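Board notes (copied after class):
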Amino acid sequence: MSHRSGFDGLDHAAQQAALAELAGDALRLWPIGDSPTARLVNLSENATYAVEGGADGRRYALRIHRAGYHSREAIASELAWARALRGSGIVVTPNPVPGRDGELIQALAHPTMDGPRNMVLFGWETGAEPGIGDDLVGPFESLGAVTARMHAHAREWPRPAGFERLTWDFETSLGDGAPHWGRWRDGMGLDPAKQALFARTVAAIGRRLATYGKGPDRFGLIHCDLRLANLLVDGAAVKVIDFDDCGFGWFMYDAATPVSFYEHEPQVPALIDAWVRGYRSVAPLSPEDEAEIPTFVMLRRLLLVAWIGSHAETELAQSMGVAYTEGTVGLCEGYLRRFG
């Protein structure tokens, strides 16, 4: 049995323990002083730790990448765009900290793992994660403006040589091949009736997006995951964190991801209206683009059904579970009435 199989064969608690040991050992790779501690704050695609207690007195966020998702080149590409956005004053993004060797990406192995894990240490950003129960109209309007600036930057930014990020189109999201987050058909709690309904919805999404197209005014480099957990509200500012899923997709997909996991909530239409207002305060948004936002909300919802099914070991997936799949039924029925 390989070491990698060994890690994958561990139960959830043992995996967390191995990652915690790796995080503790890894902190010596950065010049942040003696005896810092790492506390797990999120475990989904990657493991993220809050780091404090070092001699320099500062707080950090340590991200340990999961194996086999992004190459070192892809991580470097993510950091390049996020740093360019921050440096241009477009949006506040987390600032990566060079290691003792001057490199932003460090790597270290654990005995249970097949090879070293890539990891990045970021300076801690102030602000609070917004909650769906908060009054989010103002933050969503601010986010719309920030997103418009990010899109404008992405269109003009000269990407560095070797830039490598995933493409998030219909096939890599909901296609029948090998979509990035797993197959929607493997979602939790899917019975034949739901399978048939979801399949009709997926087909309708595919038809609309084929008509909408991937012209450079509609498809390019985007964040891809502006969900509430990846935003920080700091006074009037909205900061954007976690560019781990950034890649090439439809610009209007960034209008859908802020309502991730809450697409069914009654306040969502008003929040999307606020996002659109904010976007238009910075850049034009055609009626055709605005009209397709419901398609991207539906695509995202079904993509998350797939993600939950393929990440059943995570706390987030377990907290959403079958209920999220069941809650998707009404959304599919409503979407098909409008667009099917």
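Comment from the instructor: The longest strand covers residues 37-43. The domain at 3-123 is CATH 3.30.200.20 (Phosphorylase Kinase; domain 1).
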